[in-house]
């Protein structure tokens, strides 16, 4: 098998380097970040991949997964890498492992054994690769750690490299290599760091010029200086830079030698000297790795479970919260699928990511929500996404849903914390002035109420959660039935908060009832709820339409919002028309490119792809929640279980599925595609946060409310008994669930542990 989970170590072990796509991991200390694959390819960046990207990574190009973080081992005439790639000569034994914030490679060839562990520690902004080498016989070998550098502004490099690359410098300060990016009119030059490359053992020689190290008509597979056996001490003042070190080692039989390489950033040459000196201190690497392990152990202990279903337990305890944290940190910025060139922090995306962070780290959740609230205008609407690190102008497009996610995130924070203190914090509006968080989220409601359409539903504006629907509202008249349901969901939440704030919550419930009436009188189509209304008054998502007759989101949210008088029947239609063995399609049937008209077509996606009939995993999570609210555990379990990445991959086949079997993807090609089962846009997707909520708060049913923990499970027999440890308001709750019965645990201040069986 290509992989196996080692849950005790919180790792996935990968036994074949040539996975169908690069299977990635994210290494980060919050400032310095690295995306690395199972074969050592990847990209490092300081704070932002858009303006401070350190090395080249050639997305989508052949050969796959180049370049990366490599160490060539020259053993006589033999040259190989512990990462397996990029050399043509491969190790005789090899495996990789992705863990919590680190990636490890174990390889051997001709009696030389290497363990290479990559991670980013908390004490310096540097990617550390720790090499442990052992030989069965006495040997002299040469190591060549190597990184191909690029211009920090990836888009500028694509457009202007012929001029700007001559403003780059790479040189040595003693045995430390330094890269300086200083290009005219770059953003934030005063915040742009120097990049350094160093080892904690003596360096024989180095190279800073890629062409000198690699040679003409060669690649990472066979650099000429590795083949020749030595670097040439090349520097670079204009051209294509790299970092390469030559380290000559003598290995005694059975003796282990350790070498540490540091790829890091610092603001000045003096600071580089201090950082490298710190990195070279005895015990620095071990202490950094131990701190990383302790950090993740503390993070994950907040929610742990024991379940009869091993795959579910693996995802709940390890990989889902790990992925959700990485989503929270990186939004949708950079992955193997997203080049990290145009998206910053999406308000809609990040507000949803906050929901999964709330049980783990309230401080981080509040800080991120404050950032999003700072993108809100005084009238209540929000920018669509923003660039707080880069300082660029935000995308100011107004969607019908962005501002409403802020209410939901604030509500979750208050329920987790059990106080109203956060609502009293002051946050600036984007267009000037300041208000409390409470005033901000009330503005969200006001904005929706000020933008209702002719039929009474919220105006679509630029679009709602389904971005493809922007074409139904170009004249400003299109209305979103789904946004009405989202609106209804947060109206209940803000009504509860209003009552607790000593204000009138009933006024929000009155709005809710008015929207609910519209949903059932105008949106019900006879077997499901319609999706939206176009500028000309056409109801999209109706049996009367020739295409895209039923849409998933209005069925699931009719239940989530509590607005759907026919919610059960609507979800039955989901099962009948949308469900597959690899997840629930977003729409049925897929659209042609002439719907609703040739000029105003909704999509150019092929059938079964993306927005047009794929299994949109993010939207599947809401169907799971809906079935839990309807108390149908078998169906909730089916919808959840079939999208577990290891389960979906096994069903589709590794080659067809392609993506990682340990993290969720955004979508899977649907049955109307010739590549049904192809998963793509993995790692950075709203699927992660909502899958975590679906399984922990609705299937296991453990939800915080103002007074304590509500337990309302919806579990099948194969998920029982379930044992859960949940840290909540400083108390550790040990909960054993033997049946689907509702219970409530009032929170007691000062209590450290609590045990309950239902």
UniProtKB/TrEMBL annotation:
The keyword Electron transport does not apply. The keyword Transferase applies. Residues 13-280 form the Glycosyl hydrolase 94 supersandwich domain. Transmembrane segments: none annotated. One of its GO terms (biological process) is carbohydrate metabolic process. It holds the Pfam family Glyco_hydro_94. Gene3D superfamilies: 1.50.10.10, Glycoside hydrolase, family 65, N-terminal domain, Maltose phosphorylase, domain 3, mpn423 like domain. InterPro entries: 6-hairpin_glycosidase_sf (IPR008928), 6hp_glycosidase-like_sf (IPR012341), Gal_mutarotase_sf_dom (IPR011013), GH65_N (IPR037018), GH94_catalytic (IPR033432), GH94_Enzymes (IPR052047), Glyco_hydrolase_94_b-supersand (IPR010383). SUPFAM superfamilies: Galactose mutarotase-like (SSF74650), Six-hairpin glycosidases (SSF48208). It comes from the Bacteria. Residues 296-701 form the Glycosyl hydrolase 94 catalytic domain. Keywords: Glycosyltransferase, Transferase. GO terms for molecular function: carbohydrate binding; glycosyltransferase activity. This is Cellobiose phosphorylase.
């Amino acid at each position: 098998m290509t992989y196996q989970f080692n849950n005790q170590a919180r790792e996935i072990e990968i036994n074949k380097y040539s996975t169908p796509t690069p299977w990635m991991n994210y290494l980060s200390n919050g400032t310095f970040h690295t995306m690395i694959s199972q074969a050592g390819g990847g990209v490092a960046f300081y704070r932002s991949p858009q303006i401070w990207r350190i090395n080249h990574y050639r997305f989508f190009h052949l050969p796959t997964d180049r370049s990366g973080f490599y160490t060539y081992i020259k053993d006589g005439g033999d040259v190989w890498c512990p990462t397996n790639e990029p050399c043509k000569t491969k190790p005789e034994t090899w495996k990789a492992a992705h863990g919590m914030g680190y990636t490890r490679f174990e390889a051997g060839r001709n009696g030389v054994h290497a363990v290479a562990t990559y991670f980013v520690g908390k004490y310096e902004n540097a990617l550390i690769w720790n090499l442990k080498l052992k030989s069965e016989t006495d040997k002299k070998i040469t190591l060549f750690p190597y990184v191909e550098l690029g211009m920090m502004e990836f888009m500028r490099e694509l457009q202007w490299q012929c001029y700007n690359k001559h403003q780059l410098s790479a040189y040595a300060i003693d045995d430390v290599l330094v890269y300086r990016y200083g290009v005219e009119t770059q953003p934030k030059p005063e915040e742009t760091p120097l990049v350094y490359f160093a080892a904690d053992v003596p360096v024989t020689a180095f190279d800073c010029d890629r062409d000198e190290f690699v040679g003409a008509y060669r690649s990472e597979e066979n650099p000429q200086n590795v083949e020749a056996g030595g670097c040439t001490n090349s520097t670079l003042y204009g051209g294509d830079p790299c970092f390469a070190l030559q380290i000559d080692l003598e290995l005694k039989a059975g003796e282990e030698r350790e070498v540490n390489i540091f790829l890091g950033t610092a603001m000045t040459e003096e600071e580089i000297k201090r950082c490298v000196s710190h990195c070279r201190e005895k015990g620095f690497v071990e202490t950094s790795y131990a701190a990383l392990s302790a950090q993740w152990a503390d993070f994950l202990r907040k929610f742990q479970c024991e379940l009869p279903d091993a795959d579910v337990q693996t995802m709940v305890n390890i990989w889902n919260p790990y992925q959700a944290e990485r989503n929270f940190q990186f939004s949708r910025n950079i992955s193997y699928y997203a080049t990290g060139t145009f998206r910053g922090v999406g308000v809609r995306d990040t507000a949803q990511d906050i929901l999964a962070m709330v049980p783990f780290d309230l401080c981080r959740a509040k800080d991120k929500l404050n950032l999003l609230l700072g993108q809100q205008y005084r009238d209540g609407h929000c920018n669509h996404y923003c660039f707080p690190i880069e300082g660029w102008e935000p995308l100011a497009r107004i969607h019908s849903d962005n501002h409403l996610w802020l209410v939901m995130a604030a509500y979750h924070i208050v329920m987790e914390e059990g106080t109203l203190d956060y609502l009293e914090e002051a946050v600036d509006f984007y267009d000037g002035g300041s208000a409390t968080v409470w005033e901000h989220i009330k503005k969200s409601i006001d904005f929706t109420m000020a933008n209702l359409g002719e039929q009474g539903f919220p105006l679509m504006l630029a679009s709602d959660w389904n971005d493809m629907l922007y074409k139904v509202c170009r004249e400003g008249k299109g209305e979103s039935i789904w946004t009405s349901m989202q609106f209804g969901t947060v109206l209940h939440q803000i009504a509860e908060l209003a009552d607790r704030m000593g204000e009138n919550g009933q006024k929000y419930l009155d709005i809710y009832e008015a929207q609910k009436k519209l949903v059932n009188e105008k949106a019900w189509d006879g077997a499901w709820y319609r999706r939206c209304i176009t500028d000309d008054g056409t109801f999209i998502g109706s049996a009367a339409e020739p295409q895209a007759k039923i849409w998933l989101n209005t069925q699931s949210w009719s239940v989530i919002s509590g607005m759907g008088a026919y919610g059960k029947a609507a979800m039955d239609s989901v099962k009948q028309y949308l469900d597959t063995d690899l997840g629930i399609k977003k729409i049925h049937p897929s659209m042609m490119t002439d719907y609703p008209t040739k000029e105003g077509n909704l999509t150019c996606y092929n059938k079964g792809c993306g927005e047009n009939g794929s299994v949109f995993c993010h939207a599947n999570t809401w169907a799971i929640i809906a079935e839990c609210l309807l108390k149908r555990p078998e169906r909730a379990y089916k919808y959840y279980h079939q999208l577990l990445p290891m389960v979906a991959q096994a069903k589709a086949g590794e080659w067809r599925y392609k993506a990682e079997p340990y993290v969720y993807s955004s979508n899977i090609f649907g049955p109307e595609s010739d590549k049904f089962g192809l998963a793509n846009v993995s790692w950075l997707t709203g699927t992660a946060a909502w899958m975590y909520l679906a399984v922990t708060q609705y299937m296991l049913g453990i939800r915080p409310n103002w007074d304590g923990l509500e337990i309302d499970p919806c579990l099948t027999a194969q998920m029982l008994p379930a044992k859960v440890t949940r840290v909540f308001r400083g108390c550790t709750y040990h909960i054993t669930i033997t049946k689907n019965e509702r219970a409530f645990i009032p929170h007691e201040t000062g209590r450290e542990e609590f045990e309950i069986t239902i």
